[in-house]
Design brief:
The protein is α/β, with parallel strands linked by helices and 160 residues long. The protein is built from four helices and six strands, in the order ααβββαββαβ. A hairpin with a 3-residue loop joins strand 1 and strand 2.
Amino acid sequence: MRANNRLYVNTLRILREKGLQWASRCVNTTLCSSPLECASLALKNCLGGLIIIGIDPGVHAGLVLTVNDILIYSWEGPLEDMFDIVKSLSKFADIVITGKGWGEAFKNMNLRVIEVDESSTSKSKVRFSKRIGKHARAAYLIALRKPITSLRGYKKGKKS
């Protein structure tokens, strides 16, 4: 019997909406507290890799949560609201990837922060099977970029 049946069902719903039913075998609701966290951890358990928060900073910000480049969650809205979302996702995410110059804004969240060149991400014509806004699309492209800077001392679980 599952520890929390409602949590399990809602996690399966997220995986099914993303076409990731196969990951249901990796769901362990005793290790998570929300459906989004359970779905992310299930994919990480099945595939390995990192749970990444990609951020397109700006007055109107975009944010995505990915595991092995698979889009799990997207959000767009005002910059001040984004920090609350990152704080809640930081409980289970491994890393934040953001545009150059924005890394220091996330240093107090006990996550590894990587800055990347965000040029041309907002103008990209990348298409997704489900419609997401241009800021979330830019955040996804940022999450896929190679790092310019990795801010030392802000790694998950310890500060050095």
